[in-house]
Design goal:
The complex is a heterotrimer of chains A (356), B (284) and C (325).
Chain A lengths: L2 H5 L7 E14 L2 E14 L3 E5 L6 H9 L6 E10 L2 E2 L5 H7 L4 E4 L3 H4 L6 H11 L8 H15 L5 H4 L9 H13 L5 E5 L7 H18 L2 E6 L2 H7 L2 E6 L2 E7 H6 L4 H8 L40 H5 L14 E3 L14 H4 L4
Parallel strand pairs in A: 3-8, 3-9, 6-7, 7-8
Antiparallel strand pairs in A: 1-2, 1-4, 4-5, 9-10, 10-11
Helix pairs in contact in A: 5-6, 6-8, 8-9
Chain B lengths: L6 H11 L1 H23 L31 H37 L1 H16 L2 H12 L3 H27 L3 H8 L4 H37 L11 H12 L5 H28 L6
Helix pairs in contact in B: 1-2, 2-3, 2-10, 3-4, 3-6, 3-8, 3-10, 4-6, 5-6, 6-8, 8-9, 8-10, 9-10
Chain C lengths: L8 E11 L7 E12 L4 E5 L6 H8 L7 E6 L2 E2 L5 H4 L8 E4 L13 H12 L4 H14 L16 H13 L5 E5 L7 H18 L2 E6 L2 H7 L2 E6 L2 E7 H6 L4 H8 L46 E3 L2 E3 L13
Parallel strand pairs in C: 3-8, 3-9, 6-7, 7-8
Antiparallel strand pairs in C: 1-2, 1-4, 4-5, 9-10, 10-12, 11-12
Helix pairs in contact in C: 3-4, 3-5, 4-5, 5-6
The chains are: A alpha/beta (356), B mainly alpha (284), C alpha/beta (325).
Chain lengths: 356, 284, 325
């Protein structure tokens, strides 16, 4: 079902990361939790893609699966994921270990817990450089140290020579996050996965960190997958946004198009339930119902069906695929049997005015 | 999210979920039955000596053989259950009742309360605990009561430590602040709010301590402190049989020793089950 | 600041200092010389970033902590004078209640929802057993919590359900003032919308005064009539919510608002906030990071200066009566 995108003539920029129909479940004592179903995703070189969803949508699960660091109870039950020709799901452990940190990197949510608390920050960066043997110069230790200082400088940490010897608890949240970004980018990966990198940070620090990540991404033509629950944040920084609900990808569109004319009912509700600079409290329209229990064996084919006012038998029995309903626009795909029309009025004119 | 189980249904679930738990529970039940009904069900009078039948190996009439005075070993081992379990239970209960509140107060209030209680706990733990117990019994007198006291004293630090940790972790929690907003004063917070939360961890401690307390009591008796002959107690029984091992009469020490081992083993296994029983998070 | 008669809560020059471990008499100025008034039925927002003191201030007003200096006058009674431990049993305790940030952390894991909601009623209101159960049922309906969930433990409830239990508990004893410390920060965005609408409805129906502490400016704007912006323990700007957001007077407020996603060109602040330990007595605490700072900002401490119905603590604010954001 991914074919439409690639078959559309010659793609000058073929996808760097391609996820096809990915299914993942967790084996638990109470049964299997169908965490991901039929997820399609492509990211091209230099593209910043936002993966947006609420808790339980599967967005973090997806990123861990791509890196091969899923929980032990996770099982891939279908689909493919390839990065630069390498099959991420079936590759040898050694191949994956080479990829991680070198070609694909990850920035995690709480910087203080993601960093080793008893190891100096500089040493942690040197560890990454050493692992991927990227130190230059005959004197290995000096080369590593220089590399670490350079990495810290690139994330705008003042006085990097002194900060090398700091422990994570001595740094503020924002600084720790910068260190983690330095760790992730030390080897100049081709793809960066940022999993809620600014949750828990102050809004001014958040802006600075996002500016840093996207600035570096643009500068190095690095593909970025930015995972967040904050729609407005994704709108501000991402070229394209993929919306996830209950383990399914429901909409995939260029940012401007997504907000100007959201087509999936869930996306529409998500936008209208986010408090914005305009509007009153009564204009907030929350998403009805609750996330379906993913342990159920009788889940409707479209997992939003039970919360959707338009759902009918077809929605419950046959899963709508991303991109099936409209063949024309590659820039805006929706997985819905009854999506809003492509030119329907947008939910938020302010957010819509933004392009990529 | 699913509805909670009732207390009884939860107990049944805990017992059947893990076969080890069930096994431990059955052994525990056996020990309790022996402790309570022991004297009534034994085949021979544990104190009745019979010189003619001294040092007989295990046989149909004497399943565990006889000791140097011709007394039936099976009866003596069974009857000893009551004393050993009784001592351990009394000691652990005393430690629990005194140590838990002290620890909770230390962890919740901090300040000089904490310093006082921690110093007390540190002082006790500075001694090799068995030697301390020996010293207490030797100083206060060679009675069963003093064994209980000594065992209680040396177990105190464990409860203080567990309670203090549980209180410390929770003292800044939102629900403690909410409890203050609801009109709770400190004492009520300690008793109604913190204590139930500290119980699961304390329960595991109880179980481990029971095993240890039995060993401790047996050890003291083994070296002649505390329980005196002709009372039947596993430690004493092992001591009485120790001199005969070399000459080949292995059964006089082995069976009391095995009983000791079984009891400690049971209590160690029971620890996890007790915690599961008490923790509401497991109630689904 | 308004001098309308009879404010419900008047805070006068409130201070909370914490001694710094190891330092010789060094004090951390968590809340420094804060004065504020809340009228009956008014909803006031308290915004700022981490370390600004808003949570400490909220806990001082809820009388969970004792102030180092200053007065808290609630409906004429000086409630700051009584130590927090004794306040638990004073008649004012039931009139000021609080909703917490993390719904999971704010519920005793061993209490059912019903027991949690009933507790303030047991201690602060003398109700018989039947009356108690009836009141709990009434509160559950009021906050939209299905009755069958009352017998559940917190780990069996969803985030939104736990939040409702926390709100029901806070409303149980019919408080006059409700302090909310980031009540929706830990919730998903669609659950947040539901809870915010619930709070708005309750405020209208019950005539509550509210202090809404949050770092999310969009949310604060929706639920409050006035907002106070805090920085390093001090209030740097106060005014009607809409006006403060549309045309902020203080440079920090301007930077804060510009950092909200979607608010146009971002004002970048240099460095990090200075330490709240022993701050300088005669300089603006924002000096050094302020994009508009001048030399005299480092020599003179700005006071909260009123301009119309608004106030800002900035030496240059007098020149900015109506600047654009």
């Amino acid at each position: 079902m991914n074919a439409p995108l690639r078959a559309r003539g010659s793609a000058p920029n073929p996808p760097l990361l391609e996820v096809c129909d990915l299914n993942l479940e967790f084996r638990t004592r109470d049964g299997a939790v169908q965490a991901l179903e039929g997820v399609n995703l492509q990211i091209r070189k230099g593209e910043i893609v936002g993966l947006v969803g609420e808790s339980g949508s599967g967005k973090s699960v997806l990123s861990y699966a791509l890196l091969g660091i899923s929980d032990r109870a996770a099982r891939i039950t279908g689909g493919e994921a390839s990065f630069g020709g390498i099959d991420l799901l079936r590759a040898d452990a050694r191949v994956l270990a080479e990829l991680r940190g070198r070609e694909i990197s990850m920035v995690f949510q709480s910087p203080r817990t993601a960093l080793n608390p008893i190891r100096k920050v500089g040493r942690q960066i040197e560890d990454v450089l050493r692992r991927h043997a990227l130190a230059r110069g005959s004197d290995l230790s000096r080369g590593l140290r220089e590399g670490a200082i350079q990495a810290l400088r690139e994330v705008a940490i003042p006085d990097p020579e002194r900060r090398l010897n700091a422990y994570p608890f001595e740094l503020s949240g924002g600084m720790c996050q910068r260190v983690m970004i330095a760790l992730a980018l030390a080897c100049r990966p081709a793809l960066l996965i940022a999993d809620e990198p600014t949750t828990g940070l102050d809004v001014t620090t958040q802006a600075a960190v996002m500016d840093l990540i996207t600035g570096l991404a643009r500068e190095r033509q690095m593909a970025t997958l930015f995972i967040t629950h904050d729609l407005a944040l994704a709108a501000d920084y991402c070229d394209r946004i993929v919306v996830m609900h209950a383990g399914q990808a429901v909409e995939d569109a260029v940012t401007g198009s997504l907000f100007a004319a959201p087509r999936h009912p869930y996306t529409r509700r998500l936008i209208s339930s986010t408090p914005g600079p305009a509007g009153s409290i009564s204009s907030l329209a929350p998403v009805p119902g609750n996330l379906p229990d993913l342990r159920r064996t009788d889940l409707p084919a479209c997992r939003f069906a039970e919360r959707c006012e338009r759902a009918d038998e077809r929605c419950r029995r046959i899963r709508p695929l991303l991109g099936e309903s409209q063949a024309r626009e590659a820039s805006h795909r929706v997985a819905c049997w009854y999506p809003d029309a492509a030119d329907a009025a947008g939910a938020d004119p302010v957010l819509a005015g933004r392009e990529g | 999210m699913s509805a909670p189980r009732s207390g009884v249904a939860h107990a049944r679930h805990v017992l059947t979920e893990n076969p080890v738990t069930l096994f431990a529970a059955l052994l525990f039940a056996l020990l309790v039955v022996l402790a309570i009904a022991g004297p009534a069900i034994v085949p021979y009078d544990p104190l009745a000596s019979n010189a003619a039948a001294a040092l007989q190996p295990p046989s149909a009439q004497h399943w565990f053989g006889t000791d140097a005075l011709g007394r039936d070993m099976l009866s003596r081992v069974i009857v000893a259950t009551r004393l050993d379990l009784g001592i351990a239970l009394a000691a652990v209960a005393a430690s629990f009742v005194i140590g838990l509140p002290l620890g909770l107060a230390a962890g919740y209030f901090g300040g000089w309360w904490d310093r006082l209680v921690t110093r007390l706990s540190d002082t006790i733990m500075a001694f090799p605990l068995f030697v301390l117990a020996m010293g207490i019994v030797a100083a206060l007198g060679n009675t069963v009561g003093n064994i209980v006291l000594a065992t209680a004293v040396i177990n105190l630090p464990f409860y203080i430590r567990v309670a203090r940790a549980e209180a410390n972790v929770r003292r800044g929690a939102g629900w403690i602040e909410a409890a203050r907003l609801s009109g709770n004063r400190d004492l009520r917070i300690l008793v109604v709010h913190l204590l139930p939360n500290a119980l699961p961890a304390a329960a595991v401690q109880v179980s481990l301590n029971m095993g240890w307390a039995i060993l401790n009591a047996a050890g003291l008796s083994f070296i002649g402190l505390g329980v005196r002959p002709p009372e039947a107690e596993w430690g004493i029984l092992v001591a009485e049989g120790a001199q005969y091992i070399v000459s080949g009469e292995w059964w006089v020490s082995l069976f009391p020793g095995a009983a000791l081992m079984l009891a400690v083993f049971t209590f160690n296994l029971l620890g996890d089950a007790l915690r599961d029983l008490l923790d509401p998070r497991r109630r689904t | 600041m308004s001098d309308l008669p009879d404010p419900l809560l008047r805070v006068e020059r409130l201070k909370k200092y914490f001694p710094v471990a190891g330092g010789r008499g060094s004090m951390l100025h968590a809340v420094d010389d804060v004065s504020l008034e809340i009228r009956r039925g008014e909803s006031v927002g308290l915004v700022g970033e981490s370390g600004c003191g808003k949570s400490t201030l909220a806990r001082l007003l809820a009388r969970l902590h004792d102030p180092t200096d200053g007065r808290i006058v609630f409906d004429g009674a000086d409630i700051g004078a009584l130590p927090a431990a004794r306040f638990a049993r004073s008649p004012e305790r039931a009139r000021i209640q609080m909703v917490f940030q993390d719904p999971t952390d704010s519920l005793n894991p061993r209490f059912t929802a019903e027991e949690a909601i009933a507790e303030p009623l047991k201690l602060l209101a003398s109700l018989g057993r039947e009356a108690l159960r009836a009141r709990v049922a009434e509160l559950a309906t009021q906050v939209g919590l299905p009755a069958e969930l009352l017998a559940r433990f917190p780990h069996q409830l969803s985030g939104g359900q736990k939040a409702r239990v926390g709100i029901a508990r806070a409303l149980a004893v019919r408080p006059d003032l409700l302090i909310l410390d980031e009540p929706t920060a830990a919730l998903d965005v669609s659950v947040q919308a539901v809870v915010l609408q619930l709070l708005e409805r309750l405020r209208r129906e019950l005539g509550l005064s509210m202090i809404f502490v949050s770092h999310d400016l969009n949310v604060v704007r929706l639920l409050t009539e006035r907002v106070a912006v805090m920085y390093l323990g001090e209030i740097v700007e106060v005014g009607p919510s809409d006006e403060v957001f549309r045309s902020p007077m203080h440079p920090y407020t301007r930077a804060l608002i510009s950092s909200i996603p979607g608010q146009g060109p971002r004002i970048r602040l240099q460095g990090e906030a200075r330490s709240p330990v022993d701050p300088p007595a005669s300089a603006c605490r924002f000096h050094g990071r302020c994009p508009d700072g001048q030399d005299r900002c480092g020599r003179e401490k700005p006071r909260l200066v009123s301009v119309g119905g608004r106030a800002a603590a900035c030496l240059l604010a007098a020149n900015r009566v109506s600047s654009s954001a």
